[in-house]
Amino acid sequence: MRFIINEHSIEADVDVRTSLLDLLRDHLGLTGTKKGCNQGACGACTVLVDGERINSCLALAVQYQDREILTIEGLGTIGDLHPLQAAFIEYDGFQCGYCTPGQICSAVAMIGEIRRGLPSALTEDLALEQIGFSEDEIRERMSGNLCRCGAYNGIIEAIRATYAEESAQEREAAA
Amino acid sequence: MKFDTPATTNPIDRLKVVGKATDRIEGPLKTTGTAPYAYERHDAVADPAYGYIVGAGIAKGRIVSMDLAAARAAPGVIAIVTAANAGKLGKGKFNTAKLLGGPEVDHYHQAIALVVAGTFEQARAAAALVHVHYARTRGNFDLAAAKSSAQPPKAGGIGGKPDTAVGDFAGAFAQAPVSLDATYTTPVHSHAMMEPHASIASWNGDQLTIYTSNQMINWSKGDVAATLGIPAEKVRLISPYIGGGFGGKLFVRADAIMAALGAKAAGRPVKVTLQRPLMFNNTTHRPATIQRIRIGAGQDGRITAIGHEGWSGDLPGGGPETAVNQTRLLYAGPNRMTATRLAVLDLPEGNAMRAPGEAPGLMALEIAIDEMAEKLGMDPVRFRILNDTQVDPEQPSREFSQRQLVECLRLGAERFGWDKRVAKPGSVRDGRWLIGMGVAAGIRNNLLMKSAARVRLDSHGIVTVETDMTDIGTGTYTIIAQTAAETMGLPLDSVIVKLGDSSFPASAGSGGQWGANNSTAGVYAACMTLRDKVAQALGLNAADVDFADGQVRSGNRSIALGDAARSGELVAEDGIEYGDLDKTYQQSTFAGHFVEAAVDAATGEIRIRRMLAVCAAGRILNPKAARSQVIGAMTMGVGAALMEELAVDTRFGFFVNHDLAGYEVPVHADIPHQEVIFLDEEDPISSPMKAKGVGELGLCGVGAAVANAVYNATGVRVRDYPITLDKHLGRLPTLT
């Protein structure tokens, strides 16, 4: 089977019962993606597939051949942190660190969803092309990612700070 | 280093590094997914086999037979471990039930078999082919039904005596002009940490190494040895990163023992994680409580009588939830009593979860205090301040080393805008929402535990700290680095911290909010010994040297610290041990918790709008991580108040909602902006660090502050947690 993971083409021969999560963690050594429940209830296993966030524990690896898979390892490295990774450190958006890769991957895709105008349960006007980036919108959209250490305030601050900076840079570039 | 007199000025007081809000030094590892947790140690163990645990399908009884033929014949299966072939096993000092059951079954989902196979998928599929025939026996699963049979538990341990009494409680309570007699219940809670228990076990001859996820390395090394019947020196535990614990990883659990047994049987390393739906019944939990509180007061609001009785249950040989203990210390009052009773229940093993005792105890006590204030027509902040005590009320000769509860409450009330609270409940509306404010006091004791460390200095002036201390998300790596940097006069990035390895000196470990103060005091002690060695190596008088800016200074001489190790690494090992300052003084931490809640007037839905904690907990070593500890605990307190409950099936004896979909914990959308204020405090009686802990204090009282805010919003008093909308919906104020 051929997979495209973090822009690398990878061949792997695994049991067809293997989840995408276990493919990453147990067969490819990409252990940044975490197994919290293996039932789709906690979000620790969040990865991006073609830019969309999914619970990799509920995905059979065999179904994700030739799709663009992005994991925390592909987002940034210790020497070259993604801005959101740096913001998580600055705003202390984690404690034990186990939900953290999932929170970060989820947030990256979530920002994309807002930019594409996808509404959430909180969005009052579904016809809006530009959805606001309020704290409540982010909280609603991030609620599939549990953090038992309770670092929610820091996570929201990190996401807002990163997004605000990115938006400002984009506005500057546009001007 | 023996600490038996209050600290005077020492190198930590310079506060160049300690006390500064500091990013976690392991932050880059955790945010990039490169911090190695137990199940991920491919770097250390090549080609492990996979173990999958089979949990008992009954709560109490016997295994009559186990048919393993189909499982054995399944593809990839290497070995199957059961009690029948595991050999004689002991039981750890800290375990109540055996970690491998059979033929007797002690509780539901107790491990009864481990299937080891070449892949995870093979092991899981084969485990489903294990057929077990049970003979069930009747058990006691209902705390309310077992309450009348409850007995005083054994005295001793952290909980102390089961009963205390001062003065004439019964007489004073009977005569009190204003009194309250109310019963409260708290349900079973689960730690539900994000990382499931996990271990990789590897044997090299008779030497066992387990990469595991464990808060207390030294306790657990002993318990692995005791369970397997091997000498402790043959066991090495390695646990540098832990995906949350909250007390659930204080002890050796089935993952570690079954991985060790599986690896022995398979003849190769084996990795085992507890599958999430197994965790809730297989491991420990915070026991449910029933609590009766009686308070009597004069018309002036002074408490004349206070009594707190608590009931909980556990397996035979287990312990109680010490929910009454904070009532011995929190408020003044000449006539008082507490009593703890323990029933035998055949549910899974109860044990410590974050702030054991105080968390459920304050959930009840601090509602009762709110109810008393209302009866007296007194503001609940004022009522608490009026009944403050500066001495242990049961032993008035014992003063508190520091006690700033009144300051916490006063400052909190001011910052929160408490003066805008309307005392009459159900009287503030914001559109469809009923709005209320609630307050509660928090107290959690400061426990002293000996703790050791080894420090190494190399010729580049880099100091490496080694201790078996753990970082469960608490920020240990960073505060230990800050401590070593401060003591040795180095910048933070000149310190390397290595944790969680039983080959390092034994530390206090992570539990009971004692980790920060004790483990850093142990590192301080080791660094002070290293300073002496540095002075000696440089030919300086140890009494007259200053360590600052990477230099060692004495008189006019200034020498780079690394020069002391030019002819070889300098190594020092020391630790902190305590005298009786915790007996002479009562050492505790305090908080004032403030909450604003909104309740939908039509549906009863409860939302938390804002939260504030003001904490007095000694010197705060890293305000950034300490704040995170407190807001995280406040989050857990919201869970306890509004949603967390393991539902007991009292017929079959198990927790029904045993996964993260059914056991609800707060999510992003449940938690509003949270504020934390730390009072400026140093406690020279606690340790040379003058610090205490905050990780459990942050939870103590939060649940009641939420409950009191909801009551203030609705006027409906709910005394049975969690406060779900069904409990007040039928009694909400009439919609207008």
TrEMBL record, chain A:
<keyword id="KW-0411">Iron-sulfur</keyword>
<feature type="domain" description="2Fe-2S ferredoxin-type">
    <location>
        <begin position="1"/>
        <end position="75"/>
    </location>
</feature>
<dbReference type="GO" id="GO:0051537">
    <property type="term" value="F:2 iron, 2 sulfur cluster binding"/>
</dbReference>
<dbReference type="InterPro" id="IPR012675">
    <property type="entry name" value="Beta-grasp_dom_sf"/>
</dbReference>
<keyword id="KW-0001">2Fe-2S</keyword>
<keyword id="KW-0479">Metal-binding</keyword>
<dbReference type="InterPro" id="IPR001041">
    <property type="entry name" value="2Fe-2S_ferredoxin-type"/>
</dbReference>
<dbReference type="Pfam" id="PF01799">
    <property type="entry name" value="Fer2_2"/>
</dbReference>
<dbReference type="GO" id="GO:0042597">
    <property type="term" value="C:periplasmic space"/>
</dbReference>
<dbReference type="InterPro" id="IPR052914">
    <property type="entry name" value="Aldehyde_Oxdr_Iron-Sulfur"/>
</dbReference>
<dbReference type="InterPro" id="IPR036010">
    <property type="entry name" value="2Fe-2S_ferredoxin-like_sf"/>
</dbReference>
<dbReference type="InterPro" id="IPR036884">
    <property type="entry name" value="2Fe-2S-bd_dom_sf"/>
</dbReference>
<dbReference type="GO" id="GO:0046872">
    <property type="term" value="F:metal ion binding"/>
</dbReference>
<protein>
    <submittedName>
        <fullName>2Fe-2S iron-sulfur cluster binding domain-containing protein</fullName>
    </submittedName>
</protein>
<keyword id="KW-0560">Oxidoreductase</keyword>
<dbReference type="GO" id="GO:0016903">
    <property type="term" value="F:oxidoreductase activity, acting on the aldehyde or oxo group of donors"/>
</dbReference>
<dbReference type="InterPro" id="IPR006058">
    <property type="entry name" value="2Fe2S_fd_BS"/>
</dbReference>
<dbReference type="InterPro" id="IPR002888">
    <property type="entry name" value="2Fe-2S-bd"/>
</dbReference>
<keyword id="KW-0408">Iron</keyword>
<dbReference type="Pfam" id="PF00111">
    <property type="entry name" value="Fer2"/>
</dbReference>
TrEMBL record, chain B:
<dbReference type="Pfam" id="PF20256">
    <property type="entry name" value="MoCoBD_2"/>
</dbReference>
<dbReference type="InterPro" id="IPR008274">
    <property type="entry name" value="AldOxase/xan_DH_MoCoBD1"/>
</dbReference>
<dbReference type="InterPro" id="IPR036856">
    <property type="entry name" value="Ald_Oxase/Xan_DH_a/b_sf"/>
</dbReference>
<dbReference type="InterPro" id="IPR049648">
    <property type="entry name" value="PaoC-like"/>
</dbReference>
<dbReference type="InterPro" id="IPR046867">
    <property type="entry name" value="AldOxase/xan_DH_MoCoBD2"/>
</dbReference>
<dbReference type="Pfam" id="PF01315">
    <property type="entry name" value="Ald_Xan_dh_C"/>
</dbReference>
<dbReference type="GO" id="GO:0016491">
    <property type="term" value="F:oxidoreductase activity"/>
</dbReference>
<dbReference type="Pfam" id="PF02738">
    <property type="entry name" value="MoCoBD_1"/>
</dbReference>
<dbReference type="InterPro" id="IPR037165">
    <property type="entry name" value="AldOxase/xan_DH_Mopterin-bd_sf"/>
</dbReference>
<protein>
    <submittedName>
        <fullName>Xanthine dehydrogenase family protein molybdopterin-binding subunit</fullName>
    </submittedName>
</protein>
<dbReference type="InterPro" id="IPR016208">
    <property type="entry name" value="Ald_Oxase/xanthine_DH-like"/>
</dbReference>
<feature type="domain" description="Aldehyde oxidase/xanthine dehydrogenase a/b hammerhead">
    <location>
        <begin position="32"/>
        <end position="138"/>
    </location>
</feature>
<dbReference type="GO" id="GO:0005506">
    <property type="term" value="F:iron ion binding"/>
</dbReference>
<dbReference type="InterPro" id="IPR000674">
    <property type="entry name" value="Ald_Oxase/Xan_DH_a/b"/>
</dbReference>
